[in-house]
Design brief:
By secondary structure, this protein is mainly alpha-helical. It contains 6 helices and 5 strands. The chain has a 3-stranded antiparallel beta sheet with strand order 2-1-5. A two-stranded antiparallel sheet has the order 3-4. The radius of gyration is 22 Å and the shape is elongated.
Length: 296
């Protein structure tokens, strides 16, 4: 499930890389293959990222106005808490539905492509059975992640907004008196301050993470032995040191990559692994390549 702390960590090294088309391609054939694979996936993930960002921003916009309108004549923090929870609860179902649809699109695009390559490369004779298994799995997973993400967004919003309101009720002016600022004004200012950065972090992390998880689930659906995987690091100067170190590592499909973290080592299925520490997955743009026989 998505971490509750995803929005409390920002500015990871990979968060603002250059346009993929501006990344030069090396002369070495293997290195050139890795760069081209990364560039192709990065372009497509950025397109999905825009969709997710729009969904989150529109949800924030609706919440902001509904909450601010209802808080216009409110001065009690207890009443404000109740109103905020009511409005955020209204936001969760439509947000969950939109996110689930967007996650499905990401999963189907990346997973179906991988299954198609597996068939073309002779790893499987037909794709119907693996595709059915994969699509059933990805629909359930998309809904689960959407439910957790909508819950997490609401939880973070309530926590941050209530803190802003509490601070506003105790702000002292230069004359030593409490400055009275309407809760509606505080609410709009709070959303305006955080909505862009929060939407950016969530959309980038989820577009990448769901695509990578979908690829892993597609390979699991193949149910064929001997598949290996390679960690392809972000191919620009924004790659974080721990991912630069693991880049190029090839292991068996069900093994874990050992990735350095602040608390030691994360054992990861690949880039975007939700079980990893937040610092190893938020804003990550590395990709996973699967090797079936002599083909990737």
């Amino acid at each position: 499930p998505p971490d509750d702390d995803i929005e409390d960590i920002s500015g990871e090294p990979e968060d603002d890389g250059p346009d993929p088309d501006d990344v030069p391609e090396p002369d070495d054939q293997k290195a050139r293959h890795a760069v081209r694979l990364w560039k192709g996936e990065e372009r497509r993930k950025r397109a999905h990222e825009k969709v997710l960002r729009r969904i989150v921003l529109e949800s924030f916009g609706g919440e902001k106005e509904r909450i601010a309108t209802r808080l216009a004549d409110v001065s009690s923090l207890q009443v404000a808490d109740f109103i905020i929870e009511q409005e955020l609860e209204k936001s969760r179902p439509p947000l969950r539905k939109l996110l689930a649809g967007a996650y499905e699109e990401i999963g189907f695009e990346f997973g179906r492509e991988l299954l198609g390559r597996a068939k073309a490369g002779g790893a499987i004779l037909e794709t119907k059975s693996p595709l059915d298994r994969f699509e059933f799995n990805i629909r359930k997973f998309a809904d689960y992640v959407a439910a957790e993400r909508s819950r997490q967004l609401s939880t973070t919003t309530k926590r941050r907004l209530l803190k802003r309101l509490r601070d506003a009720t105790s702000e002292v002016g230069v004359d030593g008196h409490i400055v009275k600022t309407s809760f509606a004004t505080v609410t709009r200012a709070a959303y305006n301050a955080w909505q862009d950065s929060r939407a950016k972090t969530v959309s980038r992390t989820d577009a990448h993470g769901f695509a990578e998880e979908s690829k892993r689930r597609a390979v699991d659906a193949l149910q064929v032995p001997g598949i290996r995987k390679e960690w392809i690091k972000t191919q620009d100067d924004r790659v974080r040191d721990s991912h630069d170190a693991v880049g190029g590592t090839i292991i068996d499909q069900h093994e874990k990559f050992r990735v350095k973290s602040d608390n030691g080592v994360d054992l990861m299925d690949g880039p975007g692994d939700e079980t990893a520490s937040a610092a190893n997955k938020i804003n990550c743009r590395c990709v996973l390549s699967f090797i079936m026989g002599d083909r990737t």
